Amino acid sequence: MDTGPEIDTPVPAQRSEARQPLLEPLDRLQWSQAIELPRDATSASKPSEMRRAWIHRAPEREVVALFRAVRSDGEQPIPAPWWLRALADGRLDSRDTGFRVEDRMTQLLSRRPGWEYVPWAADGESGYWEFMPSERGRSGHRIPTTILNTSRHDGWIDVLPAHSGITPEPIAVAGLAGLRSRLGEFEAVR
After folding, report:
1. What is the CA radius of gyration of the chain?
2. What is the pTM of this model?
């Protein structure tokens, strides 16, 4: 039987520098889907309009379990809302409590002139509030005063003063009462 010259051609050896496929751990892949928001969420005018991802609707214990599993990999910071970090650390009693903090902040800031909600925060985040008169006002700042929720401390609210250069250290605010009492101070920068 004549096999022909093509059969006698040796199979090339595998190249040692061949790239291996980059595989994402399954938990990380699930997490990226868990925090994914619909495209129209970028037009939200308050945090409650952003709560349409799996992490906002699924049973709380499942959300926390997946977050902890992904976080245990320890490779890099995991995109997640502030309330989930606090909940997983045992410093917040429920997701609903986190939602209430955001909603009360919305009630306060949305009634005051100059404050605008910005929904396009980092992946998984809840958005933040900017005081627009502090941007390019008399002081000439390029970045407006910004209020955001945080798991950094148990007041859950940080303020970044208006600035133009290096981002200043956040000012920890003692909850909604602390924010209400200091709003005049934060709004004075224009």
Report:
1. 24
2. 0.81
